[in-house]
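SUBJECT: protein chain
CONTENTS: sequence, structure tokens:
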Amino acid sequence: MITGGLGLIGTHLTRQLIASGLSEKSIHIIDTERNFLPHNLRNELVSNRMAKRMALIGKCNLYSIDTRHAFEMEDLIRKIRPETIVHLAALPLANISNEISQEASSTIISSTLNILEILKRHSPETHIIYASSSMVYGNFSAPVIDETHELEPMSMYGAVKLAGEVLLKSFCKKNEIPYTIVRPSAVYGPTDVNRRVVQAFFDDCRLKNEIQVNGRNSVLDFTYVEDIAKGFRLCCSEEKAKNETFNITSCDPKSLGELANIYKELFPKVKVTYGEHESGVPVRGGLNNSRAKNILGYLPDFDLNRGVSEYIAEELGW
């Protein structure tokens, strides 16, 4: 079962699960198809990307259920008794979370608690995999950090993701429910519609022939969606993933200036404007993924250059 399964990560994870031999009818996707960005409404480009997402999930079971709705979720989980739940459903963007904090809190904390209560009553053997975020760390104290770094989030998004982690670990330990926590970073790739920075630069190159870089030296661990999906897939299949926390990233940190340079090479006429690092946004860097490599056998396939090239090629049909 994949909550938020029509999102960027969920659809690519589903495609990988099917490719690995899992039957489409054994995959259950829960998603309300809610859109948090006004510019996405009645946008042809977004509509095309969402159609591609639907193609990725094939004939999997699809349910339009809000994960905060206890009775509907209980009926479904009690009926299916899933072996694994990948819990991706949440408000997906840090900047939006600061504006509508109650929605961020309820879609992350309330939905997680709801699922946990249902598992305790009906399916405590189900392995729940919780999608957290690198935003739980706050400011990085070193260029590359591992999972033991202090957790001091600076934003509402990071705070509620961390609250979800604490809730999950304590509840699962108390009720002997197997869990895994995954901390992705700066996901990007085909079918993204949420104006994350790699997509924002790409669309602005195409539509406006200019991009705005806020913080030329700001560093992120950009991770291609296929790599993040691979990490979640390995968590589903690897018994040793249970009761662990993983950074699932490329571990190839690059600055926004370096990202802009990649786009300048691909779109030579693009105009680049540089501004200051956004206030309230943590100073980040790379995330050490050695734990995922050692326990899961996780190896990312894409550095930023290859990932952006693959992304653009697929979006443009090159």
